[in-house]
Amino acid sequence: MRFSAKELLVCFVAVCAVHGSADAQNDPVVFVHGLRQNGSSWNGLTNDLAQMNPIDPFKVYMESFEPYSDQANTLASYLSSVGAYNWPAISHSNGGVVVREYVRTRSDPLINRHLSLGTPHLGAPLAANLYLGVVHTWAANVGWDILAAPLFY
User: Fold this and answer.
1) Given a cut of 80, is residue 6 above it in pLDDT?
2) In this predicted structure, which of 31-40, 45-54, 106-115 has the lowest mean pLDDT?
3) Alpha carbon 132 to chain centroid distance?
4) Residue 28 belongs to what H/E stretch?
5) Region of 102 on the Ramachandran plot (φ > 0 left; ψ -120 to 50 alpha; else beta)
6) Rounded to 5 degrees, what angle do the CA atoms 81, 53, 112 make?
7) Angle between the 68-81 and 94-104 helix axes, to the nearest 10 degrees?
8) 20 with 55: CB under 8 angstroms?
9) CB–CB of 32/110 below 8 Å?
10) 87: which DSSP letter?
11) Average pLDDT of the chain, as a whole number
């Protein structure tokens, strides 16, 4: 997973906002990965952020093809096992949907702030087109978009 300078800046600002006081030390932050990724996908970003801020990154490892309810339960188990309480979360893609499902289904969630990057909160275009029965049209348009991209720079 690669992040742009803009995304890194957004994460930096978000992590800065987590601190309750100027002398905060190693504030925990939960990082939830996206589809077809794992917790180590965050290594580069968390290392950079930890050098700039006193954070203690906690990276969750989940099976991203499991139902969202199962992933939310995995997140809940992980948060309970590490003693989380009112921690912020930063998520990417599928991880944002998982965090949202976790918070939605818990009466007292252990996450109190959430920044999601590239999360399909309104659903994925493929799923919507499958539901509408026009996936063939959508797929053809995607194919033409790829072919129309410049081949030389």
Assistant:
1) no
2) 45-54
3) 27
4) strand 27-32
5) alpha
6) 45
7) 70
8) no
9) no
10) E
11) 80
- Annotate 122-139 with three-state secondary structure: CCCHHHHHHHHCCHHHHH
Is 50 within 8 Å of 31 (Cβ atoms)?
Answer: no
Note the pTM of the prediction, 2 decimals: 0.71
Q: Tokens for 66, please give them.
A: 């499991």
Assess contact for 89 and 31: CB atoms under 8 A: yes
In the chain, pLDDT over 90 holds for what percent of residues? Answer: 35
Task: For 89-122, write each residue's pLDDT tens digit.
Answer: 999 989 999 999 999 999 999 999 998 888 887 7
Tokens linked to 132: 């509408």
Rounded distance between C-alpha atoms, residue 104 and residue 32, angstroms: 16
CA distances, 151 to each of 93, 127, 146, 148 (Å): 28, 29, 10, 8
Calpha distance 52→29 (Å, rounded): 14
| Residue 72 to residue 110: CA distance in whole angstroms | 12
Top-confidence residue, 55 or 137: 55
